[in-house]
């Protein structure tokens, strides 16, 4: 039996085997981003490019740690939730100087608010949302911080609601923030000019006179 099997195998044509080598680059998908958007991390966008793409943007820092309000959920890249991401992006931000400027020039109210998460060398966008510009220009503050009104229904979010300008998952090349809460808001206008930033590293880059 063994001799017959060996003979049969020996009679089969010899197959040449080759190693196939392909160029494969490593891809790191930021946590907290849908799998289908993983390739967007190859697109590094500057603040100026973001402003021009969407007609002006507010960029807000989504950082680690916990909120002082223990009942408020915080964005967790290990267990992302669209509703939590959206809530963290739209509130609570120090907008006092900006609101005064936008009341005088409502045409400059930005179109999009987006979050910036991760370390400076790999800062990505977990969500970008269309702003309700009329409501924002008319917003009256009864406290120092405010919620940015958006067009999406926060109780019934769709994936598209978090992907304004197809920015979700992209890497921001040049957004820097300070440690204080007041330093967690950046405004770049529709022409791509940096208009508002209070962190020392960004303040020197302002392209017009400081606001506020």
Structure characterization notes:
By secondary structure, this protein is of the alpha+beta class. It has one domain (2-203). 21% of the residues lie in helices and 15% in strands. It has six helices and ten strands. It has helices at residues 2-11, 47-54, 82-90, 96-104, 133-137, 200-203; strands at residues 44-45, 57-62, 93-94, 112-117, 123-124, 128-130, 145-146, 171-172, 185-188, 194-196. The strands form three sheets. Strands 6-4-2-9-10 form a five-stranded mixed sheet. It has a three-stranded mixed sheet with strand order 1-8-5. The longest helix has 10 residues, at 2-11. The radius of gyration is 24 Å and the shape is globular. The relative contact order is 0.21. The mean pLDDT is 84.
């Amino acid at each position: 039996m063994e001799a017959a099997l060996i003979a049969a195998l020996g009679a089969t044509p010899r197959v040449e085997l080759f190693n196939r080598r392909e160029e494969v680059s490593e891809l790191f998908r930021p946590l907290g981003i849908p799998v289908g958007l993983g390739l967007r991390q190859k697109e590094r966008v500057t603040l100026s490019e973001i402003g021009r793409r969407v007609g002006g943007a507010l960029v807000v820092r989504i950082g680690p740690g916990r909120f002082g309000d223990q009942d408020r959920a915080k964005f967790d890249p290990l267990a992302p939730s669209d509703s939590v991401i959206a809530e963290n992006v739209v509130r609570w931000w120090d907008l006092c100087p900006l609101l005064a400027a936008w009341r005088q020039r409502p045409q400059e109210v930005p179109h999009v608010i987006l979050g910036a998460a991760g370390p400076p060398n790999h800062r990505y966008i977990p969500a970008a949302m269309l702003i309700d510009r009329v409501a924002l220009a008319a917003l009256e503050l009864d406290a120092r911080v405010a919620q940015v009104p958006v067009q999406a229904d926060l109780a019934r979010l769709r994936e598209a609601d978090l992907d304004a300008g197809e920015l979700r998952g992209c890497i921001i090349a040049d957004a820097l923030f300070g440690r204080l809460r007041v330093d967690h808001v950046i405004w770049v206008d529709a022409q791509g000019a940096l208009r508002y930033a209070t962190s020392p590293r960004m303040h020197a880059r302002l392209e017009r006179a400081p606001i506020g």
